[in-house]
Specification:
The complex is a heterodimer of chains A (about 600) and B (about 120).
Chain A (H helix, E strand, L loop, with lengths): L2 E10 L3 H12 L4 E5 L15 E3 L2 H6 L10 H11 L6 H20 L6 E3 L2 E3 L2 H14 L3 E4 L1 E9 L2 E9 L5 E11 L20 H9 L3 E2 L4 E8 L10 H9 L2 E3 L12 H9 L3 H14 L9 E4 L5 H11 L4 E2 L2 E2 L1 H8 L4 E10 L2 E2 L12 E3 L16 H22 L7 H12 L10 H15 L3 E2 L1 H18 L14 H25 L8 E2 L4 E3 L5 E6 L6 E6 L11 E3 H10 L9
Parallel strand pairs in A: 1-2, 1-9, 2-6, 9-18, 19-20
Antiparallel strand pairs in A: 3-5, 4-5, 7-8, 8-9, 10-17, 10-22, 11-16, 12-13, 13-16, 14-15, 21-24, 22-23
Helix pairs in contact in A: 1-5, 1-12, 3-4, 4-12, 6-16, 7-10, 8-9, 14-15, 14-16, 15-16
Chain B lengths: L4 E8 L9 E8 L6 H11 L21 E4 L2 E4 L9 E4 L6 E3 L2 E2 L15
Parallel strand pairs in B: 1-5
Antiparallel strand pairs in B: 1-2, 3-4, 3-5, 6-7
Chain lengths: ~600, ~120
């Protein structure tokens, strides 16, 4: 029983960006349907976030919080651009800086409670932000559906016309006619293992936009969070040691018992462990140890409290993990280990994607009527993100929703051709008839482990080429034969895995090709065969054309407004130090 | 490292095909502090990919609260419940099965979202 649905604005994605876009589109007078792949308000990356919302200190002060009056939007802009090694889209960075205070005001008006704040950030929780957005979306009449996976976009005359979606529970298709579509599907964490994200984050939105004719870019910039718990299995992927090490410090050692950060410049180590520069710096340092054969069983290093007193650890933990609990996770045993100064194995795990769908400052893609916002976009952060992604997804979500509503109410209305739906449905059903010739879960785990190894924080030509050959082989030999053991459509998770796997392979290939093309090191992209940051040649964005599924990489100049990019070449870690030292003289962790 | 194995007994029922629910037992390698969810993942990946449990979304880290089930008769979050030996995994309500461990929608008690207590 295929269902037929019509809406003015369709939002694909149930995280913070999607909800903020849906609310804005409703406010602009459009009828809105939001598709959430998982449970309403409990999927995507947002619920997992800590979560900080960053803005300038002066605006913090104007909101009645403790903010530095000497801070300014210009200073935050300077910091975002230097933290991004000047690879930022400065128009999107300006938009972020100028819109952030307005968005925080909205959230406070809608009932957001602040737990803590510093001079440039308010700290709340991702779950709480989702609850506030969910309540608001309900109150303004956003229609919402959960456990619905969008499969593909349908265009007519080059403009967006609809979407084919799948009800994961019933296994039935939903044909949706939409005047405008906003993609807010977040990252593609599921391409790696372990990761820090939800099981739903498989990059569906980026892949379907690319297939439909939108451009994607900067796919080589994949941010790994450091000090992620790798063992025991029940805690794998937890950010708890990331949080504790960021606040308290501690000791990171390899399998020879050496302190892994000892060889590095003390200035880089200080900023690279006490601020969110830790993601790129410590992940780089950890990956280096593991590649030298100095890692442990799960591909990580050991974290213990080292010289930090148990009293300090206990105090910080009482705020970050009260009662050694983080939501439903019981960390009591880790508390005991910390007290006894016993190590846990930690390592880099994929956390955030700096690249994605190419949008302009109206969040339009190359396809009329198709908009995108949040982590699925090539956003404001360039080669490295320190400022908050929560702010990014909300400022972009709002504007994308407004522009989409305007488009839907004035220009949109192309009809989706029936034949388009039929062809997509036929293709989507194929794995159910193939009787498990090739099993998706098995392939996915192999893919994830290879991605971690060859497309982690450290890359080189040989490994990237080998990985691309592997991905091409998978596309040619395995993906066409993917099948399910059961042919039933009702909650057939293997079918979902079949449908997702092609997207993961495609995005990994796009990313690996960008990483291979970029023969320099910058931000979260380090090439051990090209360890120099080359500002003369590589201050360009990587842009990927779909090219019939055979992604082709080209470049375009960075979008600069007021800050002129530097020239010259500099070794990777020297450039990192220079970018760290370009920070404004203001208070606040960011 | 020799791993010992444990027996995990899982509730199975596809209302479209099966007259009655039944249980299947799987031997899986045991790792200290593995969760019931880790056990299901192992079964799905390595032994029986026809098994359905709520996995297409969810966090595995005790945050989203979607993986409610019964482990040895007790209602818990599957992802944050350690298994220590032979184990029985069932849905919260066996009378409302959509497929295997996934329940039909209706009353919200199949997916009590985690309350944000901060």
């Amino acid at each position: 029983m295929t269902e037929h649905v019509r809406t003015e604005v369709l939002v694909i994605g149930g995280g913070g960006a999607g909800f903020r876009a849906a609310i804005a589109a409703r406010h602009s007078g459009a009828r809105v349907l939001l598709l959430s792949k998982g449970p309403l308000g409990r999927c995507g990356a947002t619920p997992m976030a800590g979560a900080d919302f960053t803005l300038d200190g002066r605006s913090m002060h104007e909101l009645g919080r403790d903010g530095d009056l000497n801070d300014s939007r210009e200073k935050v802009f300077n910091d975002i651009v230097t933290q991004g090694y000047y690879l930022n889209n400065q128009k999107l960075a300006e938009h972020y800086v100028h819109t952030a205070p307005l968005l925080l005001r909205d959230l406070l008006d809608w009932g957001l409670k602040i737990m803590l704040s510093d001079q440039r950030a308010v700290i709340t929780s991702g779950l709480h932000i989702m609850d506030v957005l969910l309540r608001k979306a309900r109150s303004v009449g956003v229609e919402m559906r959960e456990d619905i996976m969008a499969l593909d976009l349908i265009t007519n005359g080059g403009a967006i016309a609809g979407v084919l979606a799948l009800d994961v529970r019933s296994g039935e298709f939903i044909r949706i006619a939409a005047s405008a579509v906003v993609i807010t599907t977040g990252g593609w964490h599921k391409a790696y293992w372990p990761n820090t994200g939800m099981r739903d984050l498989s990059g569906d939105g980026i892949a379907m936009a690319h297939r439909a004719g939108a451009l994607i870019g900067n796919m080589e910039f994949v941010t790994f969070a450091c000090n992620i718990m790798l063992d025991p299995p029940m805690w794998r992927g937890s950010l708890a040691p990331y949080v504790l090490s960021l606040v308290c410090g501690g000791s990171l050692t390899n399998n020879c018992g050496e302190e892994i950060l000892a060889p590095y410049d003390p200035v880089v180590v200080k900023t690279g462990t006490t601020t969110e520069w830790n993601k790129s710096f410590v992940s780089h340092a950890t990956a280096r140890e593991v590649r030298l054969g100095k890692g442990f069983r799960n591909g990580g290093v050991h974290y213990s409290r080292g010289d930090v007193s148990w009293e300090v650890i206990k105090l910080v933990a009482s705020i970050t993990f009260p009662g050694w609990k983080y939501k439903a996770m019981d960390l009591t045993e880790w508390g005991r280990m910390l007290e006894a100064n016993e190590p846990v194995e930690v390592g880099p795990a994929v956390e955030y994607f700096d690249g994605g769908i190419v949008v302009n400052e109206r969040f339009e893609t190359a396809i009329p009527g198709l908009f995108a916002a949040g982590e699925c976009c090539l956003g404001p952060f360039g080669a490295n993100r320190i400022f908050s992604a929560i702010t990014e997804i909300l400022v972009q979500g709002r504007d994308a929703g407004e522009h989409a509503a305007h488009y839907a109410l004035t220009e949109g209305g192309a009809q989706p051709p029936i034949a388009g739906f039929e062809a997509l449905e036929k293709k989507a059903l194929l794995p159910l008839a193939r009787n498990n010739e090739v099993r998706p879960a098995f392939l996915r785990r192999e893919l994830q482990l290879r991605a971690q190894r060859h497309l982690g924080p450290i890359r080189n030509k040989n490994e990237l080429e080998e990985f691309i050959i592997y991905l091409r082989g998978m596309k040619q030999n395995h993906l066409p034969h993917l099948g399910t053991a059961s042919s039933g459509r009702v909650y057939n998770k293997e079918w979902i895995d079949c449908l997702e796997l092609g997207d993961l392979v495609h995005l990994l290939e796009a990313s690996a090709r960008c990483a291979l093309a970029r023969t320099e090191s910058r931000g979260v992209h380090f090439r051990e065969d090209f360890p120099v940051c080359d500002n003369d040649r590589w201050l360009v964005e990587s842009i990927v054309e779909y090219a019939e599924g055979d992604p082709k990489v080209c470049t375009r100049p960075v979008t600069a407004t007021t800050m002129s990019p530097p020239g010259g070449k500099m070794p990777y870690l020297d450039m990192m130090k220079k970018m760290m030292q370009s920070h404004s003289d203001t208070g606040g962790m960011h | 490292m020799s791993k010992h194995s444990v027996q995990v007994k899982v509730f199975r029922y596809d209302p479209a095909r099966d007259a009655d629910p039944y249980y299947l037992e799987y031997a899986i390698p045991f790792e200290p502090r593995m969760s019931a969810m880790n056990a299901l993942d192992f079964i799905y990946h390595n032994i029986d990919s026809t098994l359905s449990y709520y996995d297409h979304a969810g966090c595995s880290l005790g945050i989203c609260g979607r993986c409610v089930g019964r482990v040895n008769g007790k209602t818990v979050l599957l992802c944050q419940t350690a298994i220590t030996g032979d184990t029985v995994i069932e849905p919260v309500s066996t009378g409302r099965t959509l497929k295997d461990l996934v329940m039909r929608k209706g009353r919200r008690d199949d997916a009590e979202p985690t309350k944000d207590t901060d």
